[in-house]
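hey can u run this one w/ calcium ion bound, need the structure tokens asap thx
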Amino acid sequence: MRMVDLIEKKRDGKALTTEEIQFIINGFTDGSIPDYQMSAWSMAVYFKGMNEQERADLTMAMVESGDQIDLSMIEGIKVDKHSTGGVGDTTTLVLGPLVAAVGVPVAKMSGRGLGHTGGTIDKLESVKGFHVEIENDEFIRLVNKNKIAVIGQSGNLTPADKKLYALRDVTGTVNSIGLIAGSIMSKKIAAGADAIVLDVKTGAGAFMKTLEDSEELAHAMVSIGNNVGRNTMAVISDMSQPLGYAIGNALEVKEAIDTLKGEGPEDLTELSLTLGSHMVYLAKKASSLEEARTLLENAIKDGSALNSFKIFLEAQGGDGSVVDQPEKLPQAAHTFELEAKEDGYVSEIIADEVGTAAMLLGAGRATKESEIDLAVGLVLRKKIGETVAKGESLVTIYSNFEDVSKVKEKLYESIAISKEKIEKPTLIYKEIM
Ligand code: URA
Ligand code: CA
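ok here u go:
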């Protein structure tokens, strides 16, 4: 096989075979196919697309390019949740203990990552003593015992995706539905998921800005999963404004605790119950979505969801008493209120910009080396559609700096108030199975 022939075949809009796609991914991973040919191929895919079979083949070739996590020692169906990313998205912290409480095994491998706040591990590390540096055997033992454990990323997962994503980034080929779907799904499958629940965000603060694009991506990922033997479904949810109220590490842990107690923000609670119901259903712990939801609602009511969080934290060295005394989490030295400059309805809270304001406080990492401040961040006091009076607080700023003028400026730019009545945005647009 010659790469140039495969580039031409795709350029002319023909479908590639399983063997041809394996040849491309293997050759690119081992370096025998140079970047310039891979770039040309990616651009051909960008313009001509891939059919369902090609997308599944690409995904599996990338899965097989590196290590695959073996979770077969864990009893039950391992369901993973993946979000395409948003601002202040506390759902992972809520969902893990929540579904574990009803018997779904949560074997999470997680990273730190760049962004407006830290990743799931950073957030959890705001609980004193909690750590993810555990051996594989211990990880498996904990999931079997408590139904939930988190381990730091290790091994060489999907090296082909790493290399290809970096190349796409500089060749104008990131925004191809087939390539994005393959990239995301390959990572989930290599991490050992039997079934996958996807939270595809849509709106100004999301990777996919329009409902149409979000739906197309969701369909692409669901069909890849189902084509390679992993039960997969997707929820399309709103990211026109941040989810919940808190954006920050310790602040989101506190928000997760509130939500597990049944006292969390309405949108975060609803999205967690929706995603959680699908996880419980795919794990075959309930025979319908309604039954799954009732199980989860009961776990919140009877305290078992909160208790599952406590047990999980303690099993990995953390101080579990934070679930009863969240004031033990890192606290910022100062708080400031962002006061509304006029009366009206909150009409816009640009998620990306609010995220940037949280980063200015030190809640996130700009580069791999940056230190993050676990205590700082933002808590929204108003969401889109709510009324506000002049002088009322729109946001509480938790800071370890005394001067937050730049943060306030950024927040004023990102929150709009209108005289006309504004409806609350839809939270869940679609469920795709
Ligand atoms: N996120 C990924 O992991 N891969 C993509 O290609 C795009 C977003
Ligand atoms: Ca939040």
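The first strand starts at residue 79 and ends at 83. anyway lmk if its weird
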